[in-house]
Amino acid sequence: MGRAEREVAGRGVRLAEAAARVAEDHARAVGAVREALRPIHDGLAERELTGIPVARLRDVTEGRLRFAGLEKGGFRTVQDVLDAGTYRLRQTPGVGQRTADQAVAAARQIADAVRESVAVRIDVDRDRGEPRITALVEALHVLVEAGPGARRAAEAGAALAARLGPLLADARPAVGRWRMLLAGREGRERALAALAELRRLTEEAERDAVPEQFAQASVDLLRRPESELAAWVDYELRSAEYYGLLAEISGRGPDTAAAEGHLPDEVAGQVREQRLDDAHCRVSLRGYQAFGARFALAQRRVLLGDEMGLGKTVQAIAAIAHLAAEGQSHFLVVCPASVLINWTREIESRSTLRAMPLHGPDRQEAFADWKGRGGVAVTTFDALRGFPTPGGGELGMLVVDEAHYVKNAHTRRAGAVAAWAERCERVLFLTGTPMENRVAEFRNLVRVLRPDFADTVDDQDSVAGSKAFRKAVAPVYLRRNQQDVLTELPLLQHTDEWEELSAADQEAYREAVRAGNFMAMRRAAYARPQGSAKLERLRELVGQAAESGLKVVVFSAFRDVLDVVRDALGAGTGRVFGPITGSVPPGRRQQLVDEFSAAPGHAVLLSQIEAGGVGLNMQAASVVILCEPQVKPTIEHQAVARAHRMGQVRPVQVHRLLAAGGVDERMVRMLENKKRLFDAYARRSAVAESTPDAVDVSDVALARRIVEEEQARLGVTDAGADAHA
């Protein structure tokens, strides 16, 4: 017993210390959030209780409480009773010991219910600068910045520290000759066995760079935001992640039944038992999202029908990531061409998995590469028909986005999907279209997933309502609504919708570049409506909103683009209002907004972004579509703020339509740093609001630079052309 044994024990001690440290650092960061949250939550609960009349105590005690004396004593609210307590209540004439005890007990019962129901909502415009809210944002910032990797490291650290502790204690005699002699035969055997296990664990950890991972996580968890301002700016950019952590830490997430889609206990229980390995995920899932991923894994062949904006894509990626962690290597996503780029980017940004688009003229070469190397392939419904179906067991999971595209079993695209689905054990269909009133379409989709189950779906299942329908089809269908699971309403969600230009789009764009016309380049994606990729995606987004009864505002800088959109959406339907343009008098603008807001259910309002982005409140809208990126960050912000403001009662989804590889991509890249600077220093400045040009990129300079770069990239030029900004 000597140096080698002491070295092994020393390595074990250092590993145990690092493991315990990262777990403690994470617990401290979580504790800081809870500490910051407590006074805010208590304040909200107190405000609610102050508004509840003391008469409500009679309801809780089923009429047994004699509270006339309480009212005469000046106790008006439930909070008054709580503040007084039984001693002060007993000093009130007409209030005896029994009445005081009953009143306080009933008040506490109401208070417990209120504390369970109140939710903390962070409003940037209202709360920025308020010390308690700022402290909460800063505490959350630490965990958001550290990312899910820090949580995984903390969990692994806690487990490893718990395992190493007893081993180090058992191995202690092995580090010295006299200790071994005094340990006795059983103690020596235990010490040698523990030392061998310590050696194995430390070597395994060092091989996998676990100490370095623990150290990095600890550093990340101890790093504070650079400033209050930096934390607030990050909150604006990633509010969904902040709210996800807040719900998880506070334990005040959505109602469990709603989060689980009102599935029967038998099905929900099976899903809860499904393990979810998020080692390949780069984002933390909300509780309902983790349940959705588990549902896909546990039930194997299902339709996820969450309402638009709840993150069906990230749930699918989480399910794929779990299977990848288990050793599966090949996955396929089939989607409309309009969202192929979005899928590729989402996979790359939200997971560590390799994304491989199978699209365009080189798709066969890409397919061969994917077959050989694996990863997550992303292709379109039309391209899928050109690929050979896989052998059994080759594909870990087939994901079909916008699955209602294959509702007609007699189409070629439906046939191709069915052929692939037949050879794959796990299939996940995604659609935001509610299936409750589309039983025939639902049955067709389920026939691909579970032929045996499809014939049991009866038209009468939908008659009893959406919850009854979901229970009837629970083994294959999961749907949640925003109002049921997003407890922190309102929420602002930004999505960049990257589209690949069609041949017609590319032709129009090339002509605009050749002419050096910057404005024509920006709206070239709408110049040929019959082949417009952006217009097709816009129609899909509006259609999804219509299915959920949501109102939509469509913004563009260009009147002719709005005319194209109006024609595409059906100007004579009575559901499309506007456009609001600079030539429309202010009174008429407000009238259009009022008519749009008063329209029952789904409606669309069209507006030029500078005409509608200032002075008009459009909080009836839950979806905002930006037809193209804007040159000035202020313009987009002010337009979105028309819908996402005080009075908005639903989350606001912002979809910015972008074309890959051209003027849109260059504008987004050039303006990103400028926008961050603007967000940090100018957004709420009175000077900036009145003179936005002082903080924005020069229109002319940006236009000229982009035109020149695009002419060089495409190899076209017009000597007489100028950049028309």
**Structural shape:** globular
The amount of beta strand, in percent, is 5-15%
Broad structural category: alpha/beta
Helix content: 55-70%
Number of domain modules: 3
User: Which value, in Å, is the CA radius of gyration?
Assistant: 30 Å
- The CATH topology label of the largest domain is Rossmann fold
Number of strands: 13
Main β-sheet description? 7 strands, parallel
Overall pLDDT confidence: 85
CATH superfamily of the largest domain: Tandem AAA-ATPase domain
Looking at this protein, list some descriptive labels.
58% helix; Rossmann fold; 7-stranded parallel sheet; 13 strands; globular; 33 helices; 725 residues; alpha/beta
Give a written overview of the molecule.
The protein is α/β, with parallel strands linked by helices and 725 residues long. It folds into three domains: 1-120 and 143-222, no CATH class; 253-479, 3-Layer(aba) Sandwich (Rossmann fold), CATH 3.40.50.10810; 492-714, Rossmann fold (3-Layer(aba) Sandwich). 58% of the residues lie in helices and 9% in strands. The strands form two sheets. It has a seven-stranded parallel β-sheet with strand order 3-4-2-5-6-1-7, with helices on both faces. Helix 1 (3-50) packs across helix 5 (97-117) and helix 1 (3-50) runs parallel beside helix 9. The model is unreliable at 677-697 (pLDDT under 50).
